[in-house]
Amino acid sequence: MKLSSKALLALAISSITATAYADTQSQDFVPTTLAGTSAQSEAKGFIDGQSLGGTTRNWFSSEKKFRGERFTYEKHGQARTDANRTNWVQGTILNYSSGFTQGTVGVATEVAAYNAVVLDRSKRDIKGGSNRTLADSDGDAVGQWSKLGLANAKFRVSNTTLTAGRQNFSSGIIDTIGNRALPSSFEGFAINSEEFSNLSFQGAYFDRVSPRTEQSLSKFRSEYGNGKQEADHVYTAGVNYQPFKSLKTSFFGANVKDFWNQYYFGATHELGDSQTLSLTTGLNYYKTVDEGKKLMGKIDNDTYSLSLGLTHQAHSLTFSYQEVNGNEYFDYLHETNGIYLANSLTSDFNGPNEKSFQVAYGLNMAEYGVPGLKFNVYSARGWGIDGTHYTGDGGVSKFAYNGIQSQDGEKHQEYGVGTSYAIQSGALKATTIRGTYVTHRASANQADGNIREFRLVTTIPFNIL
């Protein structure tokens, strides 16, 4: 990984600040020992350990394109355009989890029913739905639909669990995404081992994804490809390791059949005391190379982000630099959150050879007597996008990334402001309300275009058992 001069400067600033505020946060080495307790030895039983609950989420989004850009939809068999798009969906999850049976090998199960009710069913408003509202082949909203979002069996020995079936999974490469009315999930097998005090292992094989806004399972596709390429399966494995009390690291690799091999390293380091001044440094790095039939074309991509966050009591200020070294997008799997980069916002700032910088400010009102209330504002800028050297050679179509070669010196900016509130007590405890407003402006051939969006999301948890 080759760091730019700006990234090196940021690292230098990090070192200086670390020296000034290294008194409070412990830098002690954490020895690797066997876990002190066995989760399976404390199993309550299949029935006694069961739970039934879930969440219901009201998800509203209003978008407006500008600078002459328009959404396209069909009405009475004719293509029409409009600058506005609105999606409003109520998503509900009912989740049942049994306890683990007692004994050397514990057995449990998890089943979750997902249901969506579309509150705005206007064809003109939803514009075909995309990944926000489920629509039929004519572009009409599917007013109400349900599916099994989770359905799996779990087997546990000591602190190691094997999960088979439809499930959630979280790593820097394969991660459930939950930024719509309902989340995604994955079909396959996964193992999670926490036999050591500061070292855990994860591995998985998935051959299908359950998308956020679809009823059926799908093969894996890439987020930025043209949608014609599909991967039969994905293997992934990795470790999470905390060598010091102040330092957490993660390393994962994944083989996406006939797409790419991808490797991820992440590290977070904390110094100081937030009541005085604390520094959080984050590094995320991805290496992606083509694999097998090379359905996504030739890929040799190094992408990283470096973030420095300063916190003083209620206030936080974060600076993030991100760089893509490759003639193609930094790409990841569609319907996953497998992009742990600091500047992944409404835009991912992941264009070929793109560099980007973000400044963000956060305010936690708990310090002023209003726990649960937070505000944030940010500004991000990307520049130097250059896809003119992309050669394509994708197996299904010559160019897996449509329009990438027209990106020559493209740039874009994104501004956002948001607020959230989590109810602290009472019948609605842990209910969260979040409102955000984002503006994204781009040069002619940048992929994300010119758009403004207001989003209001209310999530209410509930327990039955």
Automatic annotation (TrEMBL):
Gene3D superfamilies: Porin
Annotated EC: 3.4.21.-
Signal peptide start and end residues: 1-22
Molecular-function annotations in GO: hydrolase activity; porin activity
Pfam families: OprD
Enzyme class: hydrolase
GO CC annotations, alphabetized: membrane
Record's keyword terms, sorted: Hydrolase, Signal, Transport
InterPro entries registered for this protein in UniProt: OM_porin_bac, Porin_dom_sf
Domain of life: Bacteria
Recorded family membership: Belongs to the outer membrane porin (Opr) (TC 1.B.25) family.
PANTHER family: CHITOPORIN
Protein name (record): Porin D
Gene name in the database record: oprD_4
